[in-house]
Amino acid sequence: MFDVASxxxxxxxxxxxxxxxxxxxxxxxxxxxxxxxxxxxxxxVERIAARLHAAWTIAGVDAQMVVADASIAxxxxxxxxxxxxxxxxxxxxxxxxxxxxxxPAIIARQRPDVLFCAGNTYTALAVALKLTLxxxxxPIVVKISNDLVRPDMPLPLRYFYxxxxxxxxxxxxxxxxxxPAMRGEIARLVGVPQSRISVIAxxxxxxxxxxxxAAARDAVVRARPGRHYVAVGRLAPQKNFALLLEAFARxxxxxxxLRILGEGPERRALEAQAAxxxxxxxxxxxxxxxxxDAWLAEADAFVLSSDYEGVPAVVIEAxxxxxxxxxxxxxxxxxxxxxxxxxxxxxxxxxxxxxxQAMMTLAPDSGATIAARRTAAATFTIESAxxxxxxxxxxxxATRAAETAPDTPRNDPIPSPAA
Length: 419
Description:
Layout: H1 13-21, H2 24-28, E1 32-37, H3 44-58, E2 62-67, E3 81-83, H4 92-110, E4 114-117, H5 123-133, E5 140-143, H6 155-171, E6 174-177, H7 181-190, E7 197-199, H8 207-218, E8 228-232, H9 241-251, E9 257-261, H10 267-277, E10 283-287, H11 293-298, E11 301-304, H12 313-321, E12 325-328, H13 334-337, E13 345-347, H14 352-360, H15 367-377, H16 382-404
Parallel strand pairs: 1-2, 1-4, 2-3, 4-5, 5-6, 6-7, 8-9, 8-11, 9-10, 11-12, 12-13
């Protein structure tokens, strides 16, 4: 079970004094936060960034969001959303260039207190903004949304990736892990002290989502013959659905089914693999599906076959439904997420035999286990995360204001506050 707390870090006595007496800037306007994204193409990072943006707006924050391509509608209605260029930028390099050219002007105009980097995908842009703007760049808060170890990378590439993580540590201000186990991984690989790391549970759900997912599963009578497995994710190498198909083929009986919900570049290869394995008639890939309520309610088990993840939001949704879970040990947080075996089964990554064995030996759940899964999921709500993120951002904004105030000597060290 998680014990999640936000630790904003070393504020400093002068920063506390500055915050207490209030600056002209904070008296005139609320906290200003700017989030940047490529687009709202289906993805957990973008969906959660949208949730946070909406929650910050409701909390009275001047929250702005800028995207390179606004042609895809956000998952929820958002205020203060703009496209950085009049024409959508639909490719990786053009999106990056458009955001890097456009965001400095937005910063000069809107004067945000903090920039929010919603996931690892956007750290290159965050570092580029720091180098471009220098001292004029606001503090940047980076949410670590994916695995930092990256065992999927060849060793030479992994060496350069580790160097890149250290560059991030030198230039970006504060890092947020989505679960306690990520704290040590961030400190070790990014090379930053604990004072620059917070842990805030990933806000994958709202309180209303918890109730809805549980009610949907409780209302379904699962009386069909066979076992029915469900998996969710982009059809991409990271998710390793090829491994899942191989495992399913080893144990599938005539009435068993596997549903893989998602879309991506590996669709044709996966369909061809299912045909070769003789399970095409039992495997269904309906594409991207949202919401997941009915699919999770009707399944007998949720299966995650990924090679690497951060804290996968879909596992949290499965916990909220109370669904049995089988997952690969694809990140440092997965053991905690599954209660070290009490809430689900954990198997090694890339091991089809172990995955098949876990799928085959699925045991009936007790009411206590279902309740424990739902309690674990309740940690990961937008209601809990909103105030923790805002507390961290206000701390960073106050510290920056104190450091740049005319009456604050810039060369003096700022002592830590009393315990």
